[in-house]
Prior knowledge:
18-stranded antiparallel β-barrel; globular; mainly beta
Amino acid sequence: MSMSKIGRAALSGAAGLIVGVCAVAPAHAEGQVLVNARLRTELVDQAGLTNDATAITLRTRLGYQTGDLSGFTFLIEGEHVLHLVDDFNDTINGLPGYPVVADPEAAELNRLQLTFTGFEDTRLTLGRQRIILGDARYVGNVGFRQNEQTFDAFVASTTAIENLNLTYAYLDRAHRVFGDDHPAGELDLDAHAITAAATAPLGTVTAFAILADVQDAAALSSATYGLNWSGSVAREGQATFGYKLEYAVQSDYGNAPASFDLNMFRAEASVSQNGLSGAIGIESLEGNGVRGFSTPLATLHGYQGWADVFLTTPANGIRDIYGRAGYAFPNPPLGSAMRATVVYHDFETENGSLDLGSEFDAVLSSQLSEHVGLEFKAAFYDGGDSAIADRTKLWFSITYSR
Length: 402
């Protein structure tokens, strides 16, 4: 029996156990009702398409998490996405001539997990769960989309060794943002993710390995090994300087149909003081002319521009040089916390340095109360000399969570 089949059998058995215990748990331990709702308008104007997209969607999550039961906690959560205005291609309805807004209607089990914390400084979680490793560059929940990505998985993490944080995750299946009704809404996996983060006076050094054998999309299979160093230097009353360096190598793995060896490098320097912040950085993903360095399980929206033009790395790779500036309002005119951020990206191929356009992004967010937040967001992509279509995306959202 393959590791994937063994993992799926164990996870299926655990699901039955979790459902049964969740049904009786409220009688034995004080729990918490989980509520999260987001109403969002997304507008997209994309060159070359007949119509603009107007998407007004409501995402609702309802769940319950028990209190501690002899070291165990249980969580169950459903997720529902409703279209209020659906003049857009949601990847399922296939509306011709409309830009894609990847928020199809869905009614799904989002999380169903059992967690054990009975061992000192250690956490074990089994079941369908949200997984975000590091800054989600390799494995994340794609939280920007209405239907988040969750995983059928086993995750073990420990800080039992001083100054060292170890995490191991076995990923059996990815439930993607496209939903259960999309042909690519799920990925069957036989994947292992390992991170080891050591803290030191000069920052945190993290070694990681992502070994993903994608059963039903062999071209996505790969083995990625990398090293990340990040940290900051601050003195009282003075600016705080931050830094990040990362290098990773990626090669064929499992059922990958072809051999490849690709590299990834990123570096960022930042500074902040009195609510003002700024950063400059570069991210370079290599391509060999056939495929580019890929991270299919990541939260891709956070990288290479919010217009989501480069969710798939071009065959000749991509080099993204960017600058970011932000301001946290000390006395917010709206709400208890308010922040504005702007980002500029310049893109070119990693192989050959051909123009891939540029993008300007901006966001203004405000926390109106403990439970309610507002966000205005925009992305303006200019294809430049490339053949990639220009596009403008605007978002307005209000979120309630508790």
